[in-house]
Amino acid sequence: MGRCCATEDGHAQRQGTPVSHPQPPATSSSTPIKPRKPADRLFSTFTRYRHPTLNSIGKNMIGSMVGPMPIKDFLESFFPTYRIPRYCSMANLFQKGVSFERTLKATGKLDMYEPFIEEIKPFAPQLHFVDSHARGDKKNGYDFEIKPDVSVYHESLDGPVPAGCDISNLDMHIEFKWHRFDDPFLAPSDDDRDQVAFLGSSDTQQDTLGQIGAYAAAQLASQLRTHAFSLYILHDTACIIRWDREGTIVTEPISYTTDSSLVEFISRYSKAPPELRGVDTLVSRPSKVEATSARAKLGLLADVPMFKTAIPGSDDGSPLSVIFTLPDVLSSTPTCRGTRACPAYDPSGDHVVFFKDSWQVNGPDMIPEGKIYAELNKNGIPHVPTCLASGDVRCWPEQEMQTKKYAGSPWACRQGLSITSHTHYWLILDVVGERLTNFTSSRELVQAIHDALVAHKLAYALGLLHRDISTGNIIIFRGRGYLIDWDLAKATNVIKPRQVTCTGTWQFMSAHLVKDASATHTFKDDLESSFWVLLWTVVMFSKSSFSIEERSNFIRGTFESTPGGEGKRSMLVSQQKLKRDLFPDRPSLYQLLKDLADLFAYDYHVPTDSEWDLLVPFENPSLREITLMEALPIFHHKQSVERLQNHNYVIGCFATHLNSGTWPENDAAVMQLLMEINCWGEEGSGNVGILKSKHILDRVLEEEEEEERSRKRARPRRKRRKKCNNRT
């Protein structure tokens, strides 16, 4: 969820559902801003140095991309001229076969940027086109460099036009490809498209999807936006792409040298009001007095940009206005809930509240998160914050999610499509807590998870299952735990799955759910998630006997393994890494983890009939026979099944060890080091090793720059030879 709020002197302030503060880049009301963090990894589809994360992003996007949409429908749906004040098209300047003549003469991808920029500018004087292929944004909140070929900025930009890519101010990105095998978009026939695929499945095609998807995800995460647009250029054709949290809509290919549709889009886009371009216009700037008061309450520096909005549905029926700074959201794909969370200032009550901004899943069985909080609050469920206001964001029709709406269109290829409807949703809570990974002691960490489980148990008794126990959804407030983020919660009387994908945070999902995405999510899965939350947090934020290499391998092998759940299941069964000396001077922590690991390990044991037969002689066991029974795996399996019939045993484990009295007081959270990995290797080799001395980015840029220098050296030589021939 959030990050910790900082005071003016830069120290962490323990007040709530956390948020780190963003650095203040220049901005205007129509150009949203972003947080800044150091970044050092490449995002590029350079085949020899393929980043596996990029390829994974591409694969994850396949079910959410809709196309090919006819360009006329696209323009009239998303940029109708009646919504553009005093619109006068610049497409009359277009000359068939002439307007992009220099671009078409390019001999390679790098040669296309400069002529394309020069030839597109006359159609959109309100836009600034910048060659950014070698000047990416390394401070984008992600651990990779955002490096589109061309970055587009609107004239409403506050401040000078960046020399490269600045994702916080980017209006649109343009990506060029030269080879057909890079092109992810297929050319379907006009036949029935129910069983026709729109996207290619090769590694290079999915790399391209991952690349442009990552750029869009970074833009949506870095700005206050409802949607965004981009261009994809393949030599002499172009596709226009619209991105939102439901998915992506792609136009049919446009032969932009002979068809004026691309320049008509650029013309309309450049003159369109902010809401059509995707800017969240329901967020405004507060007055100077309001901003000053908010910074003082939130402990922010005087130059941090502030924003203001009104959340519907407060107790008295009137909107609740809050002032906040932009929180960060890290999402690897544009299609997600896009949750942001941060402390905010409530001027009416002159106090700090918690603001959550997200795109919640729609459905007939969905319960709005605000109503879930209302039910929990009405029944006095402890360790759950009070919801002060919540509701759907009332926006322009063009700012609503559109992908689901068009997924069933006659022109859409529907093979493999799985679009889930989303709605923009705001929520305000009274408790502003500290994130779980900022615990002041390991005992406080265990106490917080215990408290969250108590809230989970009582909510389940009311007929609500949380379904996303994770480090981001448990906060610490005044030393106690609170369970938040109930937007994935399900009423237990609903038998059918509430959405088509499994729910939860991957690292903390049960081995059962990781193995089978279609499995029904039960309260036992959430109980197991509490174990994974505790184990991950103490390994990542607490001293242990692990070496850096051991810790790295354990985290990646257990929590970040590929689908199948074998990493988690293997860890539970073997427990090779869960040794008594893993956490020196904290025997209670070790024993708690050991008891929970045993519980869930035996639950995964699948006994045979012959094993069950071993228990028959022990129907009324004596003390001696009980000792014999305890040596049988089937006994522990039966015991685990019985103990997991409800929450009591797991909560009891936490409570028992909390009261053991053997907890240190000075073991606050400290981030532990992990080894970085080499993600390039040869194509298809799956090579993963320790990061080598030369960075992937350096290798790619060196080759690109050398290629460009070679071309420049070659051209004058040809000219000189020609002159010599003339003289001869």
Short description:
By secondary structure, the chain is of the alpha+beta class. Helices cover 33% and strands 14% of the residues. The protein has 21 helices and 22 strands.
Provide the fold topology:
Elements: E1 5-6, E2 12-13, H1 52-61, E3 65-69, H2 71-78, H3 101-104, H4 113-120, E4 127-131, E5 150-154, E6 172-177, H5 203-222, E7 228-234, E8 237-243, E9 248-251, H6 261-271, H7 274-277, H8 288-298, E10 307-311, E11 320-324, E12 340-346, E13 351-361, H9 369-378, E14 387-392, H10 403-406, E15 422-429, E16 434-435, H11 442-461, E17 464-465, E18 474-477, E19 480-483, E20 490-491, H12 511-515, H13 523-541, H14 548-559, H15 566-574, H16 587-603, H17 609-613, H18 623-629, H19 633-643, H20 648-658, E21 677-678, E22 689-690, H21 696-727
Parallel strand pairs: 3-9, 6-7
Antiparallel strand pairs: 1-2, 4-5, 5-6, 7-8, 8-9, 10-11, 12-13, 13-15, 14-15, 16-18, 17-20, 18-19, 21-22
Helix pairs in contact: 1-5, 11-13, 11-20, 13-16, 16-19, 16-20
